[in-house]
Amino acid sequence: MTTICDLPEDVLVELLSLLPAQDLIRTCRLVCTQWRYVVDLTTLWKRKCQREGFYIQNLDRSVSDWKIFYMLCSLKRNLIKNPSAEENFQHWKLDNNDGDKWKIEDLPGTHGKDMPDPKVHKYFVTSYGPCFKSQLITLQKEGYWNQLMDEKRPEIVVKDWYAARFDCGCRYELTVRLLSEDYIVLEEFHPEPVVIEQWNDATWREISHTFQNYPAGVRYIWFQHGGQDTQFWAGWYGIRVTNSSITIGPLTL
Questions:
Q1: What is the pTM assigned to this prediction?
Q2: 44: which of 87, 145, 199, 201 lies 20 to 30 Å off by Cα?
Q3: What is the greatest pairwise CA distance in the chain?
């Protein structure tokens, strides 16, 4: 009697590539020696990348492990929750909430401009006292297992957007830390604060940073941004922030 194990290798690759990655690794790999061999084949994972739109011809030489490449592509998304104020302040911890406190406004806002991204409709705005808010991302909860982070150290890309009102000066700050299991800072991105003068162009600007070749042991990412106005006007004349993101490699997509 012919069984599925009697199928030619290329047919088995085609069939198994239709299955979810977790089933392949946790179940199919354990069926028999032949299946383990096929599940570990580069061609199977390359086929999965092709099926799901992750494959680009000129990547062939730059990808050393197609299984890991597939996993990273399928996991890739914005790890910051509620980045553009669509859910009020949900998922954010308000570390400093001084002056007239954080507020949410609709774009473009008074004396403001629209964002380059038409999908963004709201922003968070600071007041005349320090306003900072943060999120702590637990990598294992997001699907990034310890061995992956320690051995492959995929690129971690941080982006944030900020703008001022035309009629008021303000200050913007960003801090992003890669933390160990015990919350020890392994690497940090903390550029000089941006000070914007009164009568500015109110344009939205992007700040970005890519963590590469960071130490092993990263288990959390801590993201904090905010600031205040520099003229101490009652109300919400401080820095505006929205569309924050943290994504984990590969950079090719």
A1: 0.89
A2: 145
A3: 84
Cα torsion through 18, 20, 23, 29, rounded to 10? 50
First to last CA, the chain: 45
Least confident of 42-51, 163-172, 188-197, 220-229: 42-51
Rounded to whole angstroms, the Cα distance separating 35 from 226 reads 52
Cα atoms in the Cβ-side hemisphere of radius 13 Å centred on 94: 14
Q: Are 219 and 133 in contact (CB under 8 A)?
A: no
Residue type at 203?
A: T
Inter-residue contact 219 to 203 (CB < 8 Å)? no
Contact 198, 171 (CB under 8 A): no
Q: Which helix (H) or strand (E) holds 114?
A: none
**Chain segment 81-95, per-residue pLDDT in tens:** 999 999 999 999 999
C-beta of residue 73 within 8 angstroms of C-beta of residue 56: no
CA angle at 252 for the pair 62 and 136, rounded to the nearest 5°? 120
| Domains located in the chain, CATH noted | 4-75 (1.20.1280.50), 93-248 (2.60.120.260)
